Predict the 3D structure of the following.
Amino acid sequence: MDPPKTQPRGPKKWGKVARHGAGTLSEDEATASGAWRDAMKKARDRDTGPPIRDDDRWVEDRPKARPQKKKGAGRRIAKETLIDPELAAEISRSVQQGRGPRLNQRLKEAANAFEHERFPDAIRILKPLSEIAPNVPGIRELYGLSLYRMGRYRDAAKELRAYADISGAVDQHPVLADCYRALKRWKPIDALWDELREASPSAELVAEGRIVTAGARADRGEIPAAIALLEQTKADPKRPRLHHLRVWYALADLYDKAGDVPRARDLFRRIDHYDPEFFDTRDRLRALR
């Protein structure tokens, strides 16, 4: 079993819109966000789901029922969604004069739909935007994340690859790697891991990439190699953070698969010590007794 996944975050230029999903934990603004964690969890529901990253404790967060809105209410909410002026200006420069305001309004609506987990609506809006302004990385990124949340991994990979190529950013490499994992395209995963490790944008994102890469190796039956990759991280920080727990869970799971019950038990106990409610750690411990 993979550890709880984290969710892909949306573009930095959204402010807090696409980076935060409903009902999720938060770590640092710079880390994989609640939206990232939730998406990773949903992708994990497939048989070869990615390694446990946390989607906040690897428990699926279901959106609360929302009251019926009056006609036009959704439009007003979309107008309140903020888009960074730099991104808005980039869109305006990329299209014919006069079209910028309308496209930016549509992008606000797409960001609002993503934030409220209405991914089909976000995709419906973003598809034509990506065709009109294909060189705006923020559009390709949000479109790719929306496709990912719907399990359309091939299409998501295309958009997130375009985002990375246009922007030069590596912040969505874990999500892109997980798309390739779902498609059983192993070679690009290793290349993405090398790029992410070299850029080292944050400890949290590197941890996400490490877990996905280890999970892909385990999928190929390379359990020792997967274990070795996760063992390269610092074993026992004084104040473990959420990404440490995710790595420990993934490693404990691999120890269990490899038949190394004592090490698996020790790691699950360590997780339980710091966070008794983390995913199914208690159940895993009981099963190993």
